[in-house]
Amino acid sequence: MGHGGGGALSAELVENVFLPAFGGRTLAALGDSAALSLGGARLAFSTDSFVVRPLFFPGGCIGDLAVNGTVNDLAMSGARAAYLSCAFILEEGVETSVVGRIAGALGDAARAAGVEVVTGDTKVVESGRGDGVYVNTAGIGLIPPGVDIRPQRARPGDVVLLSGEIGLHGVAVMSMRQGLEFGVEIESDCAALGGLVDAMLAVTPDLHVLRDPTRGGLAAALNEIAAAAGAGVVVDERAVPVPPQVASACAVLGLDPMYVANEGKLVAFVPREHADGVLAAMRAHPLGAAAAVIGACVPDHPGMVVARTAFGGTRVVDLPLGEQLPRIC
């Protein structure tokens, strides 16, 4: 299970098994989506599979999660998503009404994100060989001229921005799965981030890095960027927005909010001269109202993420080994 969690074990599996088997410089970049040139256009292409349990959770379901997850991967390249494919893997015995609810949510999310589902596939596996419904989506979109967003572009001096409160999706799914109550319902932040990215690009096309901190949370995203760029990252823990209900739930569950998955947030590395303008544009958008400066890219400790604690000390924020909360997307 750890090999599918987006942490160190996942990275080892990709590096030691898949990259040698498939090869290619484009794949080796390991971005949220691949940036491709085709017929004079620059395209972003991404695919993702969704196996969340339970299928329905506060704030969403596997259907809208499948759309938003793929749209967001494209947006992290600066691309405007255009078309999606969709494949359903159904377990024998799942009720058609359940499939209909999920398909309806998926279609509604696609329309809300401004993308069209144009092709798909359906498979059914024997009872006991699945978990109700799995969904795979792939998407393509256009990258605007002059936009070059990738983790390798993070550089010392960049300001690190976060679009809002972390940990909501992972805690919402876990509370539903375990029947836990924390005094107030915690809803997933599942959302399509294309409009927020457009608002940021309207300030400057020179955004260096965008990443949506899904599996492995903010900690995994920052570590992946630091490793790709060969630069250090310093985060001020007090500046990272953690909603009180998530902090309380993580305390009960023994989790660090920095490692809990999100499905409607992004982290951005922005040149210092553009940081104030980009932050203002983020805060003017509904999905970035709680955006904050959380740190900086530095020349020290290349490839490492360090957090300044509330007590004045520092700690290393490691890449998680596996996933603290499996099956959350």
Automatic annotation (TrEMBL):
Listed CDD domains: HypE
Residue intervals of the PurM-like C-terminal domain: 155-300
Pfam family name, one: AIRS_C
Transmembrane segments: none
Superkingdom classification of source: Bacteria
Gene Ontology annotations of biological process type: protein maturation
SUPFAM superfamilies on file: PurM C-terminal domain-like, PurM N-terminal domain-like
PurM-like N-terminal domain: residues covered: 32-143
InterPro entries: HypE, PurM-like_C_dom, PurM-like_C_sf, PurM-like_N, PurM-like_N_sf
Protein family per UniProt: Belongs to the HypE family.
Stated name of the protein: Hydrogenase expression/formation protein HypE
Organism: Streptomyces jumonjinensis
Phylogenetic placement of the source organism: Bacteria, Bacillati, Actinomycetota, Actinomycetes, Kitasatosporales
